[in-house]
Each structure stands twice: as C-alpha cells, then as structure tokens.
Design brief:
28% of the residues lie in helices and 22% in strands. The protein is of the alpha+beta class and 116 residues long. GO terms for molecular function: catalytic activity.
Amino acid sequence: MSTSDCLFCKIVSGEIPAEVVRETDTTVAFRDINPQAPTHVLVIPREHHPTAAALASADAGLLAAVLGEAHRVAVDEGVADTGYRVVFNTGAQAGQTVFHVHAHVLGGRGLNWPPG
C-alpha cells in the first residue's frame, strides 16, 4: 500500500476529517469512528509505518512517543486513574484493518480479560 492510499495518512494530511483530540509534531490522536468503549481514541505517528513491529524496528523513539501520547489521552479523557487499555493490533489475523500503526486507547468501562 502506498501512503497516498492510506486512510490514516489522509487524516494526517487533512484530506479526510477526524475528531482530533491531541496533536504533536510527530503524532495525531483522534476518536475511533466505531468505538468499543466510552473512551476509544487512536494514536498514530504522522509518519507511515504499517505495523507496531515495523515502527519498533525503524524508530523506537517514535514508538515511545506514540505510547506517551496514549497515556496523555487517557489523562485528558479522565480514565488514567481508573484504568485503561492500550492495544496495538499487528496483522490481519490480530484484527488490524488499517495498515498504518495505531494504538487504541480504551477506557471508561470494565475491560475483561482475555480480550478476544
């Protein structure tokens, strides 16, 4: 997939609208269009990397920035103290449907284990 075909790259460029809740020079956080919890925000790097594994191999610092922003989203959304989950789906069998790495920040309700 080229970055010109990537849904999340189009959100980063402003071609496709999203309900953005946080932005930095390297990341964008926006509400999921199909929320699975009262808080369901996606945190993505502005730079295209298809999976969490690819990002970890290419730029561990950027992966850390995505995770740090996930925590800041949880704080802003009021779920940091009660608990939240950060999920990276990696690969189609794990449920990844958009191949631009993204962290799901989920909270605001009890989250059972195991998740799947």
